[in-house]
Structures are given as C-alpha cells and as structure tokens.
From TrEMBL, chain A:
Domain (ABC transmembrane type-1) ranges: 94-311
Protein name: ABC transporter permease subunit
UniProt main location, coarse: membrane
Membrane topology, from the record: Multi-pass membrane protein
Transmembrane portions of the chain: 12-30, 100-121, 133-160, 172-198, 243-268, 288-314
Signal peptide annotation: none
One cellular component (GO) term of this entry: plasma membrane
Gene Ontology biological-process annotations: transmembrane transport
InterPro entries per record: BPD_transp_1_N, MetI-like, MetI-like_sf
Organism: Sneathiella litorea
UniProtKB/TrEMBL annotation, chain B:
Xref: InterPro entries: Peptide/Ni-bd (IPR030678), SBP_5 (IPR039424), SBP_5_dom (IPR000914)
Protein name (Swiss-Prot/TrEMBL): ABC transporter substrate-binding protein
Protein's organism: Sneathiella litorea
Keyword hit for ATP-binding: no
Solute-binding protein family domain location: 67-445
Length: 324, 531
C-alpha cells in the first residue's frame, strides 16, 4: 500500500511538470502582459525594461525551467497584477473553492444516488418519468445559464438569496469559512446548486443504469429466492455492486467540480481560485495561471489516488488479486 | 421589499445601538475590474487612481466637473515661466496622525520617479522641488509648462515618516524583490476615506476620515467595494437591492434598469474618444492586397473612408443613441477642445466612391482592421458596422477582433506597430489637448518619447512644430489658438477617422445620489445617501 502511494506521488510530479510545460508553451499565445501592467503614458523604454526584468524575453524553455525550479521550492512567483506572492493569493481563495466544491459534491451524492435508485426501481412511475425529464434539462442547459436563471428567480424576483459573493466569512487561521454565518450559508445555496446540477444528473443516470444492470443478474434472483426482503436486496446487494463505477466517476467529477467551478465562480462572483484564474487569463497574469494549472493537476492526481484506494475497500476481489 | 428593508433597518438599529448613537451609512458598489494595489504610484490607470483619490490626495483636486481646484496646496502662482510656487495647506493630517508638510511632497515626488513606479511621467514633469518653509515649496519644470497643475491631482502625496518607517520608499512592482511592499496592502493618505480592509479582487472596505480637512457633501460613513466581473451578475445585484451602484452597465441593459423599480441608468458622454487610425508610415501595407504602395498615404483614400461611415447609424443602432459622434480626437471636457472642428465628416457614400476612383481604386481594395473586443463599449460591434459600411463603397475589410491583451500585444510599439488599420480609444491623462497631440498625432519618435500611440504614424511636420510650441507656451489664448490650428491641419489631412465619445454607463439605486465624472471616476466626496 505504501509503495502504491509512493508510486502515485512520483507520477503526480510527472503529471504536474507536463501540465506546466504545456501551459508555458501556451502562454505566449495569450497576449502581452506588459500593457496590462502599466498606464498608457508609460514610456517605451520603461515597458521594455519591465519585460526584461520579468524575464519575458527569455526563450520559453528557460522561463519554464526557472518556474519549475522555483516551484520545487514552493515559490510560485509574484502576481503581475496584485504584486503579491501567488502562493498566498491562491491559499486565500482555496477555502472558498473547496467549500463550494464540497457542498456541491455532497449535494450530488445525497440527491443523485437516491434518485438513481428510485428511478431504477420505479421506472414506470409518473414521478420517475418526471425526474428523468428534468434531469435531461439539467444536463443540457449550460452552467452559465442555470446560474443566471437562479439569480434572476431567487435573487432578483423573490429576493430570498444573495446574487453574488460569499457573504460574511469567519477566519479560522488561514482557512475562511462561510458555514458559520447565516449570510455565508445563504450565499452558498445558489452557487452550489448551479455547480452540482450537472453532476447530480450524471450520477443519477449512472446509478440508474448500473442498478438496472445489476438487478438483472443471477445473484439478485438468488437473493430474492432466498426470501430476503426487498430493502436488503436493493440496498445491501444491488446498490453495493453498482458502487465501483460510481466511485470512479464521483472521484473524477470531484476533480472536475474543483477545476470547473470557474464558470460558477465567475457567474456568482464567488471569490475562489477559479475566479482568480479567469481574471488572470484576461490580465495575462502568467504566474497565477501557471500555479493554478499545476495545483489543479495535483488535485486530480490525489483524488484519483484516493479513488483507487477506495476500490480496495469496496471490492473484495481486488484485495484477493493483489495478494497473488 | 419594504418588509425586508424594514427588517434590516431594525436589525441594524439594534446592532448599532450598542456601539454608536450615529447610524452608519454604508454605500455598496461594484465595478467590473478590481483595485490591483493600494500603492498610489504602482499603476497609472484610471480606476486605481480614481479610487485611491478618495484615500490619497494631490496638491490639486478635480471638482465634480473635472475642473482643477486647490487640494493639498491652498494656492499656486507662476514665478518665472519654469518655476511655480505652491502654498501648502496647513493643519492637514494623514490618517495615521502625521502632519502634512513640504517634506512629504518632495518625498512623494521622488518616490514617483523611482524604479517600480508607473508615475514616472508625472515625476518627469517636475525637474526639482525646493522647500522654502514647511508649507511653501517651489517647483521647477524642465521647460515652460502652463498646465503643470493639470497633472497634479493624480500625483498622490504619501507621508514621508510613515513610508520610511515601513520601508516603502519606492513603489510596489511585480518585477524585482519589493513585492512585499507595505504600501501595496496598507494606505495612509490625507483623503476623506481610510482603508479599513482590502482583499485584492474580493472586497475593499473604506471608512470615513472624520478629521478630513474639507467640508464635503457626502454623508457616507462606510464604503464597500466588490469587483463583479460578469455584467449580468452586476446588474442583478443592483436590481435586487444588494448594491447601491454598479458600473459599467451594458448599453443594452439600460431599458431593463429603467423598467425595474428603484434603480436607473445614469449615462453621459465620457471624455474618451473612440477613433480609427490608418497606417500612413509604411511604403506598403502589411495587411492588404495592394502591393508596392500604401493607399493610406493618399489623403483622398482616407477621405473616402471617413465619408463612407455613417456615425449616426452607429450611434443609434449600436450605442442606443448614447454616443456623441465627433470630428475631433479631443472631447469637450479636454482643455483645448475646439467646438467648430468637432462636427463629424459628412456621411456621403457617393463622394466616397468618387474619391476612391480618383485615387485609382475604383473597385476598392482589401485591408485588415484590428479591433479589441473587450476594451471599449461595444468595440467589436463598432468594427463590424465599419466593415459593412466600407463594403458598400467597395472596400473589403477583413475584421480581426481579439481580446485586449492580444490586441494591444499586436498593435503597440512592442510588436513594431503590427497593424494597417485599427480602432483605439483615448482619454488624455492630463485632460489637456497637448497630451492628445503628443501621444496620438505627432510623428513617431521613440527617442523623444513622442507619438507612441500614433500607431499608423500620421506625420505632418507643421503639426510637430505646433505641438512643440504648445508644450512651452504659457499664454493660454495663444496656446489654444495653436491647438486649434494643429487640429485643423489634422482634420484637413484626414489623419484619423474619429468615431464618437463613448457613453458612461452607470447603474444607480434611487437610494443614493452620485456624481458621474467624465473620466468614469467615482468620487466618494459627492456620494450622498438619500433619506
């Protein structure tokens, strides 16, 4: 197990380096950072001097090497725009993104799995059909539009919930949380629903399909033949056997929730990493973009590692295989 | 809504009863961008300067109509053409309690000129500052400069003691190692508001400086600024009553605001002129099908282009009637504006076709138009309109619209002015026509730092001569006559295709009254919360 984790960590370094390399080769096509860093009256000589000081005239491999070496020491450089260390800027926003993604993930599972089971069991019911139709809308509407519609309905028309931001937050050391204030919790509702909606429908449809598959297998028939109660058959036997693919997808989607919170964050002006990143793109703030992409790659690797470990817990066959 | 406000007011009243007898008046607003730094010399950009102008002050201030009024200097007079005497205001204190004196002015001027500062241009307008006594200084300029004070509102004064104590004697910069600069996240000015907290790109809170030296209209005790990048979110936050003001509001949302209860769109002409320029410098255009010669060198071709554009249609169809079509590169708010030259070139497609034929292009030609798509109000749509209007006279325009970072990376001096035909906007930082002439109109001259934004290198020696003379003429009447003469020449040459002054577009709640300044600046001094 320990060697497995170690191998994964080595892999993660390679993944992050690759992501950084690809990112650096793209930055040249995003535009010129200098014009965003100075006013219109700044002279050509001063602009050229700034370009030189930032090392932007160096070949891209040199820039990449410098970034990789500094990053290895935990130094991600200074944001061009905010003139603050990138690591502290990202850390300030990490809690916002993680809280949002976590709530969205919980929503996804708590709503998605039961609905999936329900629609699999009561496929012919009217309610089931209604849920399936709604879920189609959930997968086909773009996140941006869902966010705006929710804002218009609950924020502008009903005025129940805030339209933007995180509300009041409480600082617990470097971590800031919105869970402890009423405005913080109210602010979480719309963005987390927006972020979760697509994943929710995905998980629901996945659980439904897997359940239908499993319910047709022989061992369920035998379980029924043994006279086990329906509840036990459905949840103890059938559901547990659908979980392996569900865990894989959930793991991948959790990474996606963090990474693709960008759109939700910008619609709701949620002060997380994604918003910082999207702002950095329009300002060509290279240090922020590079650090963000590397961090996201790291998240994906770690989440997948946890998913792999969870397989062992859920599927006894894997444990048996590994001892061979 | 009524119930909600009532409830909030009740809660707020209970909360406040314990702490203060005076009811806090909070003004909440959002802007599309953010306050990148609190350092007053870090970036010469209008939102940063406009916002920090509530915290820091210069020797002179802008009044609500952008006229210069005394600020930290009580008065000034010209001693000789190159020396000015300033009487500094007595009894002014910084937020930290330090006295404002001549040393602070000298220190701040020096700081603005050090490495990392983006205010070197303003620093270089002054050659030296001599302290006569604690409240009198004499400034010497490198050449006679009749409009020196025009540039003083944004040369912010910091406290020398405070800056030295916190090791922030030079400006915050992204390059080099002074990123941990104290002034980047802390402020100590003389202005009517103090920074209470500042989280870059998240939220900034300012509170009223009760010891402010001047009597000002505002009754606001706290200002909360949030950047909101997405326009629909910004507008929704205003309509839902969470914010008192947002800007900018998309032109197409004005109607929605006017139909909503309790909010309105506040619009007016901005001092920014949008125009299109032609590459007149190269012997062959970079992006055209005409080889071996440059059609834009021919005045008739440029004239044909300007007569092909229907500015009123752009105003009505794209700007919802809110733009002001112009014939001049300087807006009415700019010192030296010439009313008589401001009427646009007439829309006359027949004349345009005739001129093109006369110049030897009866079937027109092809050229690429460079255009930003997220810099000015409806910039890409304007370019599309220009493209289709030119098509009607036979000119085939290939439109290249890009985000501003890519656009500026292509067309500016850094890439060697890689454009043949481009759309740009300009607000002179000094609010004076000389800045327009020396940045946009005189021949490109990198050594003299002139004509840096004259991307197409329009070049007329007579205009250069006049601009040089304007720079050092101290007699206002003579100076304005020369400005008018220079603009007349540019207009006859058809050096540029002016489009319009773009509209300012703010969304304001009925709860507050604000003053909309022509440079898009929000001065908290004039924000009043209505009872």
């Amino acid at each position: 197990m320990i060697s497995f984790i170690f191998k994964r960590l080595v892999q993660s370094v390679i993944v992050m380096l690759t992501v950084a390399l690809i990112a650096f080769s793209m930055f040249r096509f995003i535009g010129d950072p200098i014009n965003n860093m100075v006013g219109q009256d700044t002279s050509q000589a001063d602009r050229a001097a700034l370009t030189e000081q930032l090392g932007l005239n160096d070949p891209f491999l040199v820039q990449f090497g410098r970034f990789a070496l500094n990053a290895a020491e935990g130094n991600f450089g200074i944001s061009y725009k905010y003139r603050q260390p990138v690591s502290s800027l990202i850390l300030e926003r990490l809690s916002a993104t993680l809280e949002l993604s976590l709530v969205a993930a919980i929503l996804t599972l708590v709503v998605g799995i039961p609905l999936g089971v329900y629609t699999a069991l009561k496929g012919k019911g009217l309610l089931s059909k209604g849920i399936m139709t709604l879920s189609l809308i959930g997968v086909s509407l773009p996140t941006f539009l869902i966010g705006i519609l929710l804002i218009l309905f609950f924020g502008v028309m009903l005025r129940w919930l805030p339209t933007f931001g995180r509300g009041d937050v409480v600082a617990l050391g470097w971590w800031t949380t919105g869970f402890l204030t009423l405005s913080g919790i109210k602010s979480l509702i719309l963005p987390s629903i927006t972020l979760a909606l697509f994943q929710m429908t995905l998980i629901m449809r996945l659980v439904r399909a897997e359940m239908l598959e499993v319910l047709r297998t022989d061992f369920i028939k035998f379980a029924r033949a043994r006279g086990l109660p329906d509840r036990s058959v459905h949840f103890k036997h059938a559901l547990k056997n659908t979980l392996v693919p569900v865990i894989t997808i959930t793991g991948l989607q959790l990474g996606a929730l963090i990474a693709f919170a960008i759109i939700t964050e910008s619609v709701f002006q949620w002060p997380g990493m994604g918003l910082l990143f999207i702002q950095a793109i329009s300002d060509v703030d290279i240090p922020i973009m590079a650090a963000y992409l590397v961090l996201i790659a790291f998240f994906f690797v770690v989440i997948n590692m946890i998913v792999d470990i969870l397989y062992y817990a859920v599927d006894p066959r894997l444990r048996a295989d590994s001892s061979v | 809504m009524k119930l909600r406000t009532g409830l909030f007011a009740a809660v707020a009243a209970v909360a406040l009863a314990a702490t203060s007898p005076v009811q806090a008046k909070t003004f909440k607003f959002a802007f599309q961008g953010d306050l990148s730094s609190l350092d007053p010399h870090s970036l010469n950009e209008s939102f940063l300067l406009g916002t920090l102008g509530n915290v820091y002050e210069g020797l002179a201030l802008y009044d609500p109509n952008m006229q210069i009024v005394p600020g930290l200097a009580e008065s000034w007079k010209i001693l000789t053409p190159t020396t000015w005497e300033f009487k500094l205001r007595k009894g002014v204190k910084f937020h930290g309690g330090q006295d404002f004196t001549a040393d602070d002015v000298i220190f701040s001027w020096e700081r603005a000129g050090r490495d990392g500062s983006d205010q070197k241009v303003r620093n270089s307008m002054i050659k030296s500052i001599t302290k006569v006594d604690d409240h009198t200084i004499v400034m010497e300029t490198p050449a006679p400069n009749p409009i020196l004070v025009q540039d003083l509102p944004y040369l912010f004064i910091m406290d020398k003691e405070w800056s030295e104590e916190h090791g922030t004697t030079s400006s915050t910069s992204a390059a080099g190692d002074n990123a941990g600069n104290y002034a980047n996240l802390h402020a100590n000015g003389t202005g009517p508001f103090k920074i209470k907290s500042h989280e870059a790109d998240i939220k900034s809170v300012l509170v009223r400086n009760e010891n402010y030296w001047k009597d000002i209209p505002t009754n606001v005790s706290e200002v909360i600024f949030t950047p909101i990048k997405e326009a629909p979110t910004r507008v929704a936050a205003l309509i839902s009553g969470e914010l008192d003001m947002v800007y900018p509001v998309p032109v197409q949302d004005w109607e929605r605001l006017d139909n909503a209860k309790g909010v309105k769109a506040l619009t007016g002409p901005e001092a920014r002129t949008i125009f299109i320029g032609f590459d007149q410098g190269r012997d062959e255009l970079l992006y055209s099908n005409i080889k071996g010669k440059n059609p834009f060198k021919d005045q008739r071709v440029r004239a044909a282009f300007v007569h092909a554009i229907n500015l009123d249609a752009i105003k009505e169809k794209i700007m919802r009637g809110a733009a002001t079509p112009t014939g001049l590169l300087a807006a009415p708010q700019v010192n030296g504006f010439v009313e008589s030259l401001n009427s646009p070139y007439a829309y006359d497609p027949e004349k345009s076709k005739a001129l093109l034929a006369e110049a030897g292009y009866p079937d027109g030609f092809e050229v690429t138009l460079d255009c930003p798509n997220n810099r000015y109000v409806n910039d890409e749509k304007i370019c599309q309109a220009v493209t289709s209007m030119l098509a009607k006279v036979g000119v085939k325009v290939d439109l290249l619209a890009q985000p501003k970072s890519k656009y500026f990376g292509k067309v500016l001096a850094t890439s060697g002015y890689d454009t043949s035909f481009y759309l740009l906007g300009w607000t002179p930082g000094s609010m004076d026509a000389e800045n327009v002439l020396s940045s946009l109109i005189v021949c490109q001259n990198a050594d003299a730092k002139k004509g840096m934004f004259n991307l197409g290198n329009y070049c007329n020696p007579k205009v250069d001569e006049l601009t040089a003379a304007i720079g050092s003429e101290t007699d206002q009447a003579k100076r304005n006559a020369m400005i008018a003469e220079a603009f007349k020449i540019v207009k006859d040459d058809v050096g540029y295709m002016p489009i319009h002054q773009q509209p300012l577009s703010w969304g304001v709640s009925d709860r507050v009254t604000v003053n909309q300044r022509a440079d898009n600046g929000l001065d908290y001094r004039y924000v009043v919360i209505n009872e």
